[in-house]
Every structure is written in structure tokens, then in C-alpha cells.
Amino acid sequence: MSRPLDGITVVTMEQAISAPLATRHLADLGARVIKVEQPRGGDSTRHYDRAVHGVTSAHFTWLNHGKESVALDVRDDGDLALLRRILAGADVFVSNLAPGALDRLGLGLDALHRDFPRLVIADVSGYGKGGPVDHKRAYDLLIQSEGGVCTMTGLPGRPAKPGVPVADIGTALYVYSTVLAALFERERTGAGAVVEIAMLDVIAEFMGAPLNQVIHTGSVPEPVGMGAPIVAPYGAYPTKDGQTVVLGTTNDREWARLLEMIERPDLADVAHLARNEDRCVARDEVDRIVGEWTVRHDLADVLDRADAAGIGNARLNTVADLAVHPQLTARDRWHDVPTPGGPAPALRPPGLARHWEIEDGAVPALGEHTGAVRAEFG
User: Which positions ≥6 away from 269 have C-beta within 8 Å?
Assistant: First the structure.
């Protein structure tokens, strides 16, 4: 098998989503990932539910296949010494523990960098080091709230959290990509790196366009539900057969094509609908015009016409629809991974070179590899 991170060892003290998703992707690319868990319960996501074969949670299965689980009480001198021996032979250390937890163990970032100069150290926090709120715990909803995301979601006066944990997932992808960059740098310099990633920084980056709008115009964007405040029409519309179609235009040329598609070319010369910024102001009128046409046509007909017209379109699917999406099946995006309760389908990682392979790495039981790792590292 050809895997780009074969021979790389990652040690992680992680919980929840942001660090575990990053290290799972490293495992997908061939890294050996040693997940250090506290013996009493381990990673909190293990116990969210028992969705997978009545044994393992949906979250833990998603985030942890392909890893080794080692149960260590790092407050015990012997187990802490074992952890340091493991780190001495590792390439990467990832952590997203509560503020100050590593320092209390004598594993602060400066100490680790001094003791293991070739180690790439990635530490995730909610708010970064320094500043008035660096001591605070950080969960996805809390960071999305602090970062303004929830006021961009939902409807005016009714903020909402996006249904997926975008702060956690975004942080994971920055950890993943930055660790890979640090490993590449080490190939040239021989030196490790200390990477500190704050979830608030990630969300602030995600909010770049609304931030620019506020900074430069003083105008605060309002949420528009199934849509986007910067373009119109761009939203969800009912169809004759009780489905919902999502249609999107991103410029004035597409608006002209959409008018032809919905048999309203007479609107092409209407001044207050001519430009995208004008249509955003007249969003309710625009959505009414489009919806009056879609509700007279079945979903399949709308999708076919939109494809022919070069208009972006989609069906509003449920999670159940995604689980059987024909595009994922046709492109062989699923593979089975072993879990403590039996095999379970998992998606292949989105980013793979054509010649790379991935293993069907197992979801580990708590402490499953403790004995083997103790024997290996003494």
C-alpha cells in the first residue's frame, strides 16, 4: 500500500471533535496515531450514544477509526514517564485539553519543544494564549456564538447554530493542514515546530466577508435562512410534487438565464431587479417570482431545466437521503471499518492522491492497545 505518512507517529491527548478529526485524517494517510485516554471513561464522545451496533457512539466512530487507544493515568509518575518515552520516538503531538491542563502535567508547550526539538506540537485552544478570555473553556456552540456565526444563521431576530459543528471541524482542518506543513518544514530544517490554533481565530477567518462588510460599510448583514445575504436569488423553493428545490445565481448573467428558464424574460429590463445588489434588497419579491414558477413544476423537471440553462441547482435532502446518495455510491466513497460491535460504513477521506491507499482502520475500544504499547516502550 502507498500511504504518504507511513512511518510517522502521532501521539494525541484529545477529546470531542477538533483534535480527533485532525488526527483521524493523519491516520487515514498512514500515520500511526496513539490516542492517550484517561482510564476512567476516555474520550467524552465515546458515551454520547450507542448508535453503532449498540456499543459505540456515532461521534466516536466517525472520528477515531484507525487509531490505537492507550489508557494512561498521566497524573501517575510511572504513566507520565511512559508518555514521555512515547513522545521521544514520536513525530507529532496533538492536544486540545482544557486551558492549563498540559502545564499542570509538566507538558507545557515550551517544555515539550525544549525536551523534544524534532517534535511537531499542535495545541488547540478556544481563544489562544493571552487576552482577557484565554482561560475560558470552549465548545463549538460557544465559539460560534462569540464569533458571530449564529447571528448569520437562521432568520432576523432568530439566530441559530448551524447543524454541523463548523467551529470544531474548521479547527480540525487547520490543525491537519498545519501539521502537514510543519512536517514538510522539518524535512528541510530538521526542527520541529509549535503550532497553536485558537478556535475563535478559525471562526473569525470564516467570517471574513461579513467582517469586511461591517468594517468598510458599517452595515451588519442579516441572516436569510436558506440563502445567502450577498446574492439573490439564492434559496429554496417548493415544487409541484411536494419537494424542495434549491436554486442559486451568482451574477447578473445567470439571473438573465434564470428569467428565460422561468418564462419571465419581461423582467430582464426591470431596473430594481437588474443588478445583484438590487435583487438582494428586493429578495422577498425575487423569491416570490421564482417560487410561483417552481410550484407549478415537479422537482425532476425543475432540475432538468436548470441544468439545461446552466443554473446551479440541488434537491433539499435529509441526512437519510445523504446516507444513500447515488453519487457517493457510484464513486465508491464508502468503505467498512471494524468497530467493537462489528463492521460499520465510513466515508473515505475527501483528499487522496490517486495512488494512495487507505486501510480499513478499526475503531478502538478504550485502552485496547495499552498492554502492547507498554511492552513496546518499556
Answer: none
Give me the pLDDT at residue 185, please. 98
114 pLDDT above the threshold of 90: yes
The CATH number of 9-206+333-377 is 3.40.50.10540
Give residue 359's pLDDT.
Answer: 87
pLDDT tens figures, 38-86: 999 999 999 999 999 999 999 999 999 999 999 999 999 999 999 999 9
Sequential DSSP letters for 334-357: EEEE--TTS-EEEEPPS---TT--
**Which grid coordinates belong to 189?**
530544517
- Calpha distance 206→204 (Å, rounded): 5
Residue 2 has pLDDT above 90, yes or no: no
- Label residue 241 exposed, middle or buried (CB < 10 Å: 0-12, 13-18, 19+): exposed
Superfamily of domain 234-315: formyl-coa transferase, domain 3 (3.30.1540.10)
Known catalytic residue: 168?
A: yes
CA distance 46 to 55: 9
Nearest CA among 361, 12, 38 for reference residue 172: 12
Active-site choice (168, 269, 321, 360): 168
Distance CA 258, CA 305 (A): 10
Using one digit for the tens of pLDDT, what is the confidence trace for 342-362?
A: 999 999 999 999 999 888 999
Residue 262 and residue 233 in contact, taking contact as beta carbons nearer than 8 Å: no
Radius of gyration of the chain from Cα atoms?
A: 25
Q: Are strands 234-238 and 67-71 parallel, antiparallel or unpaired?
A: unpaired
User: CATH 3.30.1540.10 residue ranges in the chain?
Assistant: 234-315
Helix (H) or strand (E) holding 234: strand 234-238
Cα angle vertex 20, ends 16, 23, to 5°? 170
Q: What is the pTM of this model?
A: 0.94
3-state SS of 6-30 is CCCEEEEECCCCHHHHHHHHHHHCC
Summarize pLDDT for 118-175 with one digit per residue, the tens.
999 999 999 999 999 999 999 999 999 999 999 999 999 999 999 999 999 999 999 9
